[in-house]
Amino acid sequence: METVIVTTEENEARKQAGSFVAFGALIVATISGLVWLWEMVSNWQQLDAPYSFFAAFYYFVIVLPLKTFWIVWTTLDQLELTEFNNMNLTISVLGVVAYAVIFFLALRFVSKKIKLLGVGYLRQIGILLLPLLLAGAWWLFICIGNWLFS
Description:
This protein is mainly alpha-helical. It is built from 4 helices and no strands. Helix 1 (8-42) packs across helix 2 (51-79), helix 2 packs antiparallel against helix 3 (85-116) and helix 2 packs across helix 4.
């Protein structure tokens, strides 16, 4: 029988490879979860109550404003302001970048005005996360109730 000696360098290389695989799996799971969540929130009308109310909140607060970027892009791209395709592409990109700057400046302005009312930034984030917490609590309550009474 042959004895295998693993050096410290080989052991470290194995740990790094395992960490890299775990990190990659985490990235893939996160992206998959976000795609699934985007689809669920976009189809909020098909969900059961009260989940449809929570999903509608996030649809109108997050998804709909983000979809306007695509609307700006397609509008500028289909206008064909010039006869040159590359120039039209550049105009579309610059238009979306300008829209993004205006969008985030407006979001910052609204957030600062809300802060002047006495609602701090952390509390604003809490208000945005409250429907998510309520939906999770409702789901947990239903699961425990179904388990207890089954």
